[in-house]
């Protein structure tokens, strides 16, 4: 059902003259698009501009990370860190993982080096990789099958290493074949049957480059790739983080000179007679949230969600208890009831997530009112200057550049934004919401450069956000 493009305009209507029957920027969007927008003053409750469907549900995409950030700030606190410990019982070693999304092979190597310095040079038993901090699915319900091979959909796992992501590249050969390269220290296998074709052949054949993945961290590229002089960089999501870490750990043991008689096993070891040897800590929560919001890091968002569920319910973290904890924490500590919204993960990647612009506005208003304690606003990307908004087409130039702080969000057919407009002194003056769904523009028939409809809409809408944010009444 196509929603009529009518607006309810209330309060300060004389500032910017809008028709109550149509809001001109909406005309840039393709027929059939669904839209919920709002511009509200932070100094009052009456919206400057809003659509009539504030209680309708939209896929929030990565704007959901704003909600995740608020819940984790309120419950986990600024001192929260993921902790990875190395423990020994004299025979076996245990690495207890907590889902640290920043843990690297170098961190793990340093822990083994410290163990060796304490006299652990020969392990007669096994090394256990304890993954009991999390339980349940490593990918949330509603994650599309066709993106599980790329790094922005890396699995959310207690055993996380190197961001659960590996780099590779593919080259085209003159004989029409392709070859792939992955650094030797990555314990993965990559192959290619893809063909190298001309641009004309590519367009005529409708053949594209495709990725097939298997659970044992094997990746196969197939299909077609247009001839190129330089390699095409690739990033693969690790399919089995535990297996990846097992193989990495075996390599690191050789590098630091520790002999292992047994095996590297996954799971909880038997007995409780293990004593700490060393530990590694992630950055504290504010630094994690800055990366999560600025770079829209899905792994940080989802592992924080599971850590939140673990703390709130005193059990192994999961998508199920983590998303419920988000709702419960926000209700108990802010009074905002999010029960009607569908939250399936903490990152916004799931296509099952649904959120209303009305509830997103309530979350933003709470963040602004309590920002002296929360210190969250400064972590959001700034339009045209940093994070995911640095190169956004609608924000790269004046007057919008540097005048908005917001979290973007995009899944198939959806283009969202939630944040604040700044006054002339650079302080938040308004909050604004943009939920655009079912955005399906017609495909172009040529290569002529054009401005995308969503970019044209955003440029006009953000200019209105700016006008309301920096309005100075005549004296």
Would you write up a description of this structure?
With 475 residues, this protein is α+β, with helices and mostly antiparallel strands. Helix content is 26%, strand content 24%. Helix 1 packs across helix 6, helix 1 crosses helix 7 (319-334) and helix 6 (298-313) crosses helix 7. It is globular, with a radius of gyration of 25 Å. It starts with 6 loop residues before the first strand and ends in a 6-residue tail after the last helix.
Label the overall shape: globular
What is the tally of beta strands? 22
Low-confidence stretches: 1-21
Q: What is the CATH domain class of the domain at 7-78 and 286-469?
A: Alpha Beta
Say what the CATH topology of the domain at 7-78 and 286-469 is: Beta-lactamase
Please name the defining characteristics of this protein:
Beta-lactam/transpept-like; disordered N terminus; 24% strand; single chain; signal; five-stranded mixed β-sheet; six-stranded antiparallel β-sheet; Beta-lactamase; 475 residues; alpha+beta; protease
